[in-house]
Design goal:
Layout: E1 11-16, H1 20-31, E2 36-42, H2 48-53, E3 59-61, H3 64-68, E4 75-78, H4 85-94, E5 98-101, H5 109-122, E6 126-128, H6 136-146, E7 153-161, H7 175-190, E8 197-205, E9 220-227, E10 232-238, E11 246-253, E12 256-261, H8 284-287, H9 289-305, H10 313-332, H11 338-341
Parallel strand pairs: 1-2, 1-4, 2-3, 4-5, 5-6, 7-10
Antiparallel strand pairs: 7-11, 8-9, 9-10, 11-12
Helix pairs in contact: 4-5, 5-10, 7-10
């Protein structure tokens, strides 16, 4: 009898950006992602990389180039500040590393296109962090749509209500669309497979922190999307869910309806600032911890198997095109065609 084969060598992963979501991803890579080994953590802030990396058995570095030059790093997880995403995607691709980038992968379509081109030229995987696709209830909904269990989608809905931000004065004016609603947009595109958005209409205001409205902050928004297959979709977001992190979705079709997320129906449900009566998760890491681990496992497998991941740079481009169109719609006060206007917008300048 032949001896059993040894387990495969772990795939070395480096992480860039030791902030809130970077810290969560690093811990998942070190403890919950099969086949992954967290090799190094890079962050230019004094002590930030060491504080995260050393307890997890990884090497702290202050210089991104140091991390990218490490032959033990086969894939890179980018969780740095949003404005740096596009440049880091290109740098990682040039270094021959697989790339996982938190959304958005850029702040303009041109930036995302450069990332797609760089990773394609290098022949490395390029995955973007749309974690809801890896959440069991959202994945089950997509499977039900694919199986025809609700017929043809007619009406879709997705919402994100965030339990507040620590400093509204530091929130970019475009955050509601490009950082928050981009998740809902991707979800709506994904749950209506084969269809393309042809019209986007967005309304938004500063209802949570009106004192920052003059600076351009928008903290509450509703988006309507019309698809070329006739389906209509809505997405909404708020930065003021006092009861906790609230994410839900719905697909209504010719043969039925899907509800995603939320709580079981009750005669009375009380939601307050403590979030206790409904046992509401307080943040995204709590609600989507398993989904974050699953998307990082998919990235690790794609790097090891040298294949495209299930969520690609092209998915990131589609969602960003709609998010940028929302900015144009709010400015113009009317619906816009994303195929016409999205390429004209750079959220950094909005």
């Amino acid at each position: 009898m032949s001896a059993p084969l040894p387990p495969p060598r772990p795939t070395g992963i480096g992480l860039i950006g030791a902030g809130r979501i970077g810290s969560s991803h690093a811990r998942l890579l070190a403890t919950r992602v099969p086949g992954a080994r967290l090799v190094a953590v890079a962050d230019p802030r004094p002590g930030a990389a060491a504080a995260l990396a050393e307890p997890l058995g990884a090497r702290p570095v202050a210089d991104v180039e140091d991390l990218l030059a490490d032959p033990a790093v086969e894939g890179v997880v980018i969780t740095a500040t949003t404005e740096a995403h596009a440049d880091l995607v290109e740098a990682a691709a040039r270094a021959g590393k697989g790339v996982f980038c938190e959304k958005p992968a850029g702040l303009s379509l041109a930036e995302v296109d450069r990332g797609i081109a760089a990773t394609t030229t290098a022949g490395v995987p390029f995955q973007v962090g749309f974690n809801r696709r890896f959440s069991p209830e959202f994945a089950a909904a997509r499977a039900a749509v694919d199986a025809g269990r609700i017929g043809t989608p007619h009406l879709l809905r997705s919402l994100t209500r965030d339990p507040g931000l620590p400093d509204y004065g530091r929130v970019p004016a475009w955050a509601i669309f490009v950082l928050t609603l981009i998740h809902d947009i991707d979800t709506l595109l994904w749950l209506n497979p084969g269809a393309e958005p042809v019209s986007v209409y967005a309304v938004a205001d500063a209802l949570v922190a009106p004192e920052f409205k003059a600076a351009g902050l928008l903290d509450t928004a509703v988006v309507t999307i019309r698809f070329d297959n006739g389906a209509l979709a809505t997405a909404e977001a708020s930065f003021s869910a006092t009861y906790g992190y609230d994410v839900r979705g719905e697909v209504f079709g010719s043969g039925g309806r899907l509800e995603i997320g939320g709580r079981p129906r009750q005669d009375l449900a009380l939601f307050d600032a403590d979030g206790r009566h409904a046992d509401t998760p307080r943040g995204d890491v709590e609600l989507f911890g398993d989904a974050y681990a699953a998307e990082l496992a998919e990235f690790t497998a794609a790097v090891r198997e040298r294949r495209n991941p299930v969520v690609t740079g092209h998915d990131a481009r589609r969602a960003l095109a709609v998010a940028l169109s929302c900015i144009v719609s709010v400015r113009s006060g009317g619906p816009v065609d994303p195929a016409v206007v999205a390429g004209t917008v750079d959220a950094r300048q909005s």
